[in-house]
From TrEMBL:
GO terms assigned for molecular function: glucuronosyl-N-acetylgalactosaminyl-proteoglycan 4-beta-N-acetylgalactosaminyltransferase activity; N-acetylgalactosaminyl-proteoglycan 3-beta-glucuronosyltransferase activity
Protein source organism: Leptocoma aspasia
UniProt-recorded name of the protein: Hexosyltransferase
Signal sequence coordinates: none
EC numbers, comma separated: 2.4.1.-
Region (Disordered): 47-79
Similarity annotation: Belongs to the chondroitin N-acetylgalactosaminyltransferase family.
Ranges of Pro residues composition bias in the record: 50-59
GO terms for cellular component: Golgi cisterna membrane
Length: 765
């Protein structure tokens, strides 16, 4: 018994430190079980309680009382619509729209119609087109003239009847027929109206498209109902799409039943009689401000609040007044923007002081992104040095070149801006004038814009007439502006591509591979592409063509392809020349094809594929853009792999090589664009055909076309390594580019270094 008591005491003494933990766990488990039983009991009582259900909250829908979302929330719940096709109906392929915006039923925001006449088409209408037309997304001019001569840059719709009511009727019909399903808002104005385009666009963004809107300057009908109003046409008015759709069926009745002299009154009466909607000047908290311009008004001194807030000003009597109004409102808008920028900068300073970084966290300029911070030495953005006459970082790689063109204008503008800012900061105590630019630096920072650092030699004049020469360093930033989408003409992927392949004797070893790739990627896939070969004979080979034709093997390959593909014809053209100028060769090909032909000027090392041909079609736009791809050139496998492997695997795609920026051999362009540029070139060089030997097709488009030159790397054009033969008869620049292309295409720096290292090791042993 004593031994048992001693053992029990030893166990209790061992468990005594853990006793509070055990008691806490036991108490916690007990309380949790007790709480669970209470909750379960309450739930059972609530479920089994007899009697009617509790009434829903006041204002809540019945569905909400049952735990289901109300009718207002059903639209936000995703629904799966099962696909069902009637087996009794024939299957019809679904054609998807090209743009998701069309498939989802999105509409453009605003369409603008300007009513003009014979007397004002070449005056006020032109002034409207030059001042505000480019601010609206879509603007058309409507007139009653027959076969009117359209001024440059304007889209005119002529109805052929100058009666005002008929013009309004035809205009409303035309808008509904051609644009009724594409736009949400329609703004109608006259050519003697000045409209603030940005204000009108801002107005429609704040209005709901679900209402029938007839908004403008409300006027009373003469002798009519006091409650009815029409919108004065001279100040413009806004119609919603829903109102236009409801109004269109009644336009014929309005034309036959409503008599009026003024077209705006006629339209207002039509809307009131058939739709019961009157014109309003205020809607959904938005005001349509207008200003009636008096004669002999001094616009520069006009500071009335109604004038500055006006969306439309009427009447504008002549073109000069229209331009003066545009200048005045542009100045007002610019002042507002500058004031808004200052207010935002002040708010940023005040808020930044409350952050952990304090005032040190304020970037310069305030509100602009901080400069880019490089993570490695390869990311450091270098500065370009310049003076007022020269630039020391030239596009062609030369160390010094003359400052001209856009760069010269940029430097002049930034120096003037620096002096202006200094005068604004120190006047009236000091007045600065520039003597000389000592040093200039600039760099492009992609996170904020173009940065400048200028060392200026200035002459500072005081109020008492004393002057002093001093040097001052200033820093400026030209920030990146708002990114805008540039409208581009529509192109299609179904365009036929005409491949042009020039061949010399040195290219014979690579023709077979080119034809095999062409057959596999275009003929087998039935791609809409054709091929024309240019056989370039040396004069000596041309004399012996009757005995030995150097291109006989290639012609045999073409014959085999034409037998294999019966519907395919591959023509060739024979040319005799010592200097195969790219321009002269294209002159021959261009004359043998229609003007709407899309050419792809290829090289024998090019491996044709469908992916690139589609990009050639999409990136080449007639009368707008030409495409010069930069192909990917693989390195010399003897230097890259050094016997380890002989071919790149799929994971090494576009790795062991580089994009050859020295080559301009590949090009996509339309024949019409080439012919236009070539005509200008011929007028410039007259009969000096030797100039063509120093030019490529790229130079023709660059200097004589005025088109967009789209030069981009093309991963779809991959060329195997080969040592190109450079013709010394070509110009010095073309020969130098060919040599550089061969040298840079050998291998990367690391591969060349390893090859030299291994060679030195072998020589040392």
């Amino acid at each position: 018994a004593v031994a048992a008591a001693m053992r029990l005491g030893a166990v209790l003494s061992a468990l005594r430190p853990a006793l509070p933990l055990l008691l806490g766990l036991s108490l916690g488990c007990s309380l949790s079980l007790l709480r669970a039983s209470w909750s379960h009991g309450a739930a059972e009582e609530r479920c089994l309680a007899p009697g009617p259900p509790a009434p829903p909250a006041r204002g809540a829908p019945p569905e909400a009382a049952e735990g289901r979302p109300g009718p207002g929330h059903e639209d936000f719940r995703p629904r799966i619509v099962p696909y069902y096709r009637d087996p009794n109906k024939p299957y019809k392929k679904v054609l998807r729209t090209r743009y998701i915006q069309t498939e989802l039923g999105f509409h453009e925001r605003l369409f603008v119609a300007v009513l003009t006449s014979k007397a004002t088409l070449n005056t006020l209408a032109v002034a409207v087109n030059k001042t505000v037309a480019h601010h609206f997304p879509r603007l058309l001019y409507f007139t009653g003239l027959r076969s009117a001569k359209v001024p440059h840059g304007m889209v005119l719709v002529a109805h052929g009847d100058e009666r005002p009511i008929w013009l309004m009727y035809e205009t409303m019909n035309y808008i509904h027929q051609h644009f009724g399903s594409d736009y949400d808002w329609f703004y109608i104005m006259q050519d003697d109206t000045y409209a603030q385009a940005e204000q009108v666009k801002a107005l429609v963004t704040h209005l709901s498209i679900n209402q029938d809107v007839y908004l403008g300057r409300a006027e009373e009908f003469i002798g009519g109902d006091e409650q009815a109003r029409y919108c004065h046409g001279g100040f413009g008015y806004l119609l919603s799409r829903s109102l236009l759709l409801k109004l269109h069926p009644h336009l014929d009745s309005c034309r036959n039943e409503i008599l009026s002299v003024r077209p705006d009154e006629w339209l207002g009466r039509c809307i009131i009689d058939f739709l019961g909607i009157t014109c309003v000047s205020q809607l959904q908290g938005q005001h349509y401000h207008t200003y009636e311009l008096a004669k002999n008004t001094e616009l520069e001194k006009e500071e009335e609040e109604d004038f500055q807030a006006a969306l439309a000003v009427h009447p504008v009597s002549d073109m000069t007044l229209m331009y003066r109004l545009h200048k005045q409102f542009s100045r007002i808008q610019l002042d507002r923007v500058y004031q808004e920028i200052q207010d935002l900068q002040m708010q940023i300073r005040n808020l930044t002081a409350l952050t952990p970084a304090g005032e040190a966290g304020v970037t310069w300029p305030v509100g602009i992104n901080a400069p880019f911070l490089p993570k490695s030495r390869f990311e450091v953005i270098s500065w370009d040095y310049f003076t007022e006459q020269h630039l020391f970082s030239c596009p062609d790689g030369s160390p010094k070149c003359e400052l001209s063109g856009a760069s010269k204008a940029d430097v002049s503008e930034i120096i003037e801006s620096a002096v202006e800012q200094l005068n604004r900061l120190y006047q009236p105590l000091l007045r600065f004038s520039k003597r000389q630019l000592l040093n200039g630096y600039r760099r492009f920072d992609p996170t904020r814009g173009m940065e400048y650092t200028l060392d200026l030699l200035l002459e500072a004049a005081t109020q008492k007439g004393h002057s002093h020469v001093l040097a001052k360093r200033v820093s400026l930033v030209r920030p990146l502006s708002k990114v805008e989408i540039i409208p581009m003409p529509y192109v299609t992927e179904a365009t036929r591509v005409q491949l042009v392949l020039p061949l010399t004797v040195q290219d014979l070893d690579f023709v077979a591979n080119f034809l095999d790739m062409f057959a596999m990627n275009t003929l087998d896939t039935h791609d809409n592409a054709l091929l024309t070969l240019l056989f370039i004979y040396h004069p000596y080979d041309a004399q012996r063509v009757g005995q030995v034709d150097v291109f006989a093997g290639v012609k045999a390959m073409i014959g085999e392809l034409e037998k294999r593909y019966a519907e395919v014809k591959i023509p060739w053209i024979s040319v005799k020349t010592e200097v195969p100028s790219q321009v002269k060769l294209m002159d021959i090909v261009s004359k043998k094809h229609p003007v709407d032909t899309l050419f792809f000027l290829a090289s024998v090392w090019t491996e044709i594929n469908m992916e690139f041909l589609n990009r050639c079609r999409m990136n080449t736009i007639s009368n707008w853009q030409v495409f010069f791809p930069v192909h990917f050139q693989e390195f010399n496998p003897a230097l890259v792999y050094r016997g380890e492997q002989t071919a790149s695997s799929s994971t090494d795609f576009l790795r062991d090589g580089h994009f050859d920026r020295h080559s301009f051999a590949e090009a996509c362009f339309y024949n019409s664009d080439y012919m236009t540029a070539r005509t200008k070139l011929a007028a410039d060089i007259l009969d000096r055909d030797e100039v063509l030997e120093s030019m490529e097709v790229f130079d023709v488009f660059l200097h004589y076309s005025g088109l967009h030159l789209f030069r981009a790397v093309e991963p779809g054009l991959v060329q195997k390594y080969t040592l190109r033969s450079c013709n010394p008869r070509l110009s010095e620049e073309l020969y130098h580019r060919c040599v550089l292309s061969n040298l840079e295409g050998l291998a990367s720096r690391s591969h060349l270094a390893m090859a030299l290292f291994e060679q030195e090791q072998a020589n040392s042993t």
